[in-house]
Every structure is written in C-alpha cells, then in structure tokens.
Amino acid sequence: MTDFARLLEAEIPRLRRYARALTRDVSRADDLVQSCLTRAVAKQHLWQHGTDLRAWLFTILHNQHVNDVRRGIREGATIELADAPQLTVQSNAIASLQLRDLETALGKLAPEQRQVILLVGLEGMAYDEVAAVLKVPVGTVRSRLSRGRDQLRRLMGMDEKPTEKEHSRAA
C-alpha cells in the first residue's frame, strides 16, 4: 500500500460521516465517498504533498455532492440516530427526541449554513479549512456559521434573546 493510499484510508471515516450528514442516506453516502476516493486517486498528481489532504478530500466530496444535487438527487442533512454515541438508559428517550429535533432543524437551514455547521461542528474543521473546502473567504464561513447557529437556536426553541414584543412587555 502506498503512502497516499494510507493517508486516504485514514480519512475515510470522516468522509463517510460528512457524506451521511449531507445525503441522509447511508447507501448514497457510501457512493459519494467512493466517487470522492476514485477521483482523488485519479487526480493524485494534483495534490501537493505537505498540504492539507483532509481539506482537499472534503473539497472533492463537497463538489461531488453539489454536482449530484444539481443532477436532481434529493438534498438534505441529518445525523443518523444509529451514529449517535451510546447513551445511558435513563436519558436515551430524551436524547433521541433532542437528536430528532436537531435533525429536523438542520434540514431547515439554508444549505450554505448547514454545510458550514457540519464541517465545523461535526468534523471539527478550522474556519480556514472550511473556507478552503467551500472556496469562500473565512469571513463568509464565520458569518454563515453565526447565522446558522442563530437559526438553529430559534428552530430548537433555545433562543434566549427576548423579541421586541417581549422586551416591551417586560418594561
């Protein structure tokens, strides 16, 4: 196995997790990852050794997903309940409901906000890595993340800021 193949293999779990979150379908996610890896191997000469392989692979995966969506494949984002960490018996039901609410809320976000939230929150990528993957400025990543988080809070009923009406009633 070549060094490049070993590096690719190490990134497969992250690619699969992100692909599953994007597609909401295990089979389509696996197809997306396979397509990404096939393209990466074919274009291996374009990757510069010493640069961030993870960002390069996520860019390929992201672009392939965008192309699939443009071809009419249904878009969505979710975190499958089967992928959630094991929970204690007491909190399992509550956590399932909260996770389902989160899945629903993520699905209602604008795709640009959802992508940034998944890359930062789920994959733990730095803002500059996300910017490289999505081919946008870091400032755009920050604003999409901020707006996406605000929208998630509202959708999840966790917005603690009083609305204008509530604020005037309290006075």
CATH-scheme architecture: Up-down Bundle
- How many DSSP E strands? 0
Q: What is the ordering of alpha helices and beta strands?
A: HHHHHHHH
Derived from helix and strand composition plus strand pairing, the structural class reads mainly alpha
Oligomer: single chain
For the record, the count of structural domains works out to: 1
Shape: globular
The portion of residues forming beta strands comes to under 5%
CATH superfamily: PhyR, sigma-like (SL) domain
Task: Please identify the top-level CATH class.
Answer: Mainly Alpha
Stated plainly, the CATH topology is called Butyryl-CoA Dehydrogenase, subunit A, domain 3
Distance between the termini: 70 Å
How much helix, percentage-wise, in residues?
55-70%
Count of helical stretches? 8
The whole-number mean of residue pLDDT values reads 80
User: Uncertain runs with pLDDT below 50, 5 residues or more?
Assistant: 73-81, 83-90
Tell me what the structure shows.
By secondary structure, the chain is mainly α. The protein has a single domain (3-80, 94-155), classed as Butyryl-CoA Dehydrogenase, subunit A, domain 3. The chain has helices at 3-23, 26-42, 53-70, 92-108, 111-122, 127-134, 138-155, 164-170. It is 69% helix and 0% strand. Helix 2 crosses helix 3.
Question: What attributes characterize this protein structure?
Answer:
171 residues, mainly alpha, Butyryl-CoA Dehydrogenase, subunit A, domain 3
Summarize the structure.
By secondary structure, the protein is mostly helical.
